[in-house]
Amino acid sequence: MVDDKTAEEFTAYMKKFTDLYIYLSEIIKNHTTASHPYILDLGCGPGLLSIEILKQIPDAIVIGVDPLIKMLSLARDNRDGPSVQIFEPVLGISEKIPLKDKSIDTEATE
């Protein structure tokens, strides 16, 4: 299990890869056809990809699912500005996503 210190160190390390998140979010944008898409970020961790997706697709709603409460706490801390209303970190695992069937338009996985 990942402890709080490890989660915080992971977050600090991953913040170094802004270009990667920009690149991945552009791919997601190019493959999303809905005008107000619901996007699922499985294993969202500290929410860095989710937040970048919202910069690229401001009309999206991104739901970040992660099994670690600390990661979800970090994701909430990392969201800012207008993204607050449209990025929702949710506790869950990919084998049992806590959402209704067919409620998501696109999946983003790190």
Structural overview:
- It is built from 4 helices and 4 strands.
- The longest helix has 13 residues.
- Helix 2 crosses helix 3.
- The protein starts with a helix and ends with a strand.
- The mean pLDDT is 86.
- It has one domain: Vaccinia Virus protein VP39 (Rossmann fold, 3-Layer(aba) Sandwich).
- With 110 residues, the chain is of the alpha/beta class.
- A 4-stranded parallel sheet has the order 3-2-1-4, with helices on one face.
- Helices cover 39% and strands 18% of the residues.
Task: Summarize the main sheet.
Answer: 4 strands, parallel
What class do helices, strands and sheet pairing give?
Answer: alpha/beta
What sort of overall outline do the alpha carbons produce when their principal axes are compared? globular
Strand portion:
15-25%
Broad CATH class: Alpha Beta
Give helix and strand order, one letter per element, not per position.
Answer: HHEHEHEE
Strand order of the largest sheet: 3-2-1-4
CATH architecture: 3-Layer(aba) Sandwich
- The CATH superfamily is Vaccinia Virus protein VP39
What's the Cα radius of gyration?
13 Å
User: Could you say what the CATH topology is called?
Assistant: Rossmann fold
What is the average of the pLDDT values? 86
N- and C-termini, Cα separation: 19 Å
Give start-end ranges of low-pLDDT stretches: none
